[in-house]
Amino acid sequence: MVEKRTITVFGATGKQGGSVVKSILKDSKTASEFHVKAVTRDPKKDSAKALASLGAEVVAGDLNDKNSLHAAIKGSYGVFAVTNFWEIFSSEVEEKQGKTVADVCKAEEVKHLIWSSLLNVNKLSKGVLPNVYHFDGKANVEDYIRSLGIPSSFFLPGFYMSNLPGMSLRDMGEGNWALALPMPADSPIPLFDAENDTGKFVKAMFLHEKSVGGKRIYGATAYYTPTEIVDQFKDLFPNTGKKTGFSQLPDDVFKGIMASTGAPEPVQQEMLENMRLIPEFGYFGGDRLESSLAILYEKPTTWKEYAKKHPAFASLD
User: In this predicted model, what pLDDT tens digit does every residue of 62-105 receive, in sequence order?
Assistant: First the structure.
C-alpha cells in the first residue's frame, strides 16, 4: 500500500481552506492519495470537529507563531496557504504572515506550496489604483515566494458570488430588486463560488504539480457582466425579474453606502478602487480563463446554479 502524501491546509475553517479540505476528503480519488492536516487556531470549535469527522487531522496553528507553523508543516508534501486581510486590516501583517509560511515551507522542504494570491493592483494600474491593499499584500508575498525558488504555484480567487445575494443584488423595497455596483453594465466580473469551488481548483493543482509549477491559476467559472448577472437572475425568477434591473452607482454613492455599514473611509476607498479595477484594468489584468479551467475534472459552479440554491432568493419566483 502506497503511503499517503500529507497536504497541510491553512484557513481550514474558512471559505477557501475549508473548501480545499472538504473537496479532497470527499473525493475518493484524492482522499486515497492525500492525508490532510487542517490548521486552525482552535481545534475544539465545531467547524474544526466537522473537518475531523471527514478524516482530517486537525492541528493547532497560528500564522503569527512561527514555531506552530513548523509543527503544522513538518513532514508535508504540499501546503495550501491563505491569509485573511479583513481579519487584521493590515497588509504589513498579512505580508509577514505569508512570508513566514514561505520561509517555513522552504525550511521543511515542502514539495509544492500553493499560495492564495491576487494581482498587484498598484503595479497593474501604474499607480491609478494605489489603495487595494488586500490584493497588493498577497501579490508581494507571491513575489517573495518566487524569490525563494521553492516549488510553488499560485491560486487567484475571483469575485465571490457570495458578495451578490442580499448585498449587491437585493430587494430595494416593495419587491423591486436591483444589482447596484460602481461600474458599467458591460464590465467583466470573474464570478467564483469560493466555498464550493476553491477545492476543485486547488486539488487539481496538487494533482498537476508539474504542469502548474510557477504558474497562476485563476479561480472563476466565467466572466459575467452585470447585465448577464441580472438577465440570468430574471431567467430563474421571472416574476421577481419583472421589477429587476442594474444600477450603476456613482462613486460617492457607493462610498456612502459603505459608510452606512460602519466601514471607515480607508476601507470605502479600498473597495471602490477594487470595483474600479474590474472595468478599468481587469480583475485578472485581462487574462483569459481557459487554461485555468482546463485543469479541472469537476465543473465549477455557474451563477445560475449558485443563485438557484441561495437562501436570500428562496422566496422568489
Answer: 899 899 999 999 999 999 999 987 788 788 899 999 999 999 99
Residue 72: closest CA among 93, 34, 101: 101
Please, are residues 171 and 177 in contact by the beta-carbon 8 Å criterion?
A: yes
Strands 222-224 and 244-248: unpaired
Q: Which of 191, 230, 176, 24 is nearest to 114 (CA)?
A: 24
**Which residue blocks in 175-225 are alpha helix, DSSP H?**
194-207, 209-212
| Residue 132 CB partners (closer than 8 Å, separation 6+) | 121, 122, 270, 273, 274, 277
SS3 label, residue 171: strand
Mean pLDDT along residues 162-191: 94
CA distances (Å), origin 298, targets 31, 49, 58, 196, 206: 15, 26, 26, 11, 14
Instruction: Give the Å distances, CA to CA, from 225 to 11, 12, 159, 189, 222.
Output: 30, 31, 12, 6, 10
How do beta strands 78-81 and 5-9 pair? parallel
Quote the pTM value.
0.96
Tens digit of each residue's pLDDT (9 = 90 or more) over 18-56: 999 999 999 999 999 999 999 998 888 999 999 999 999
Count the residues in the chain.
Answer: 317
pLDDT tops 60 at residue 1: no
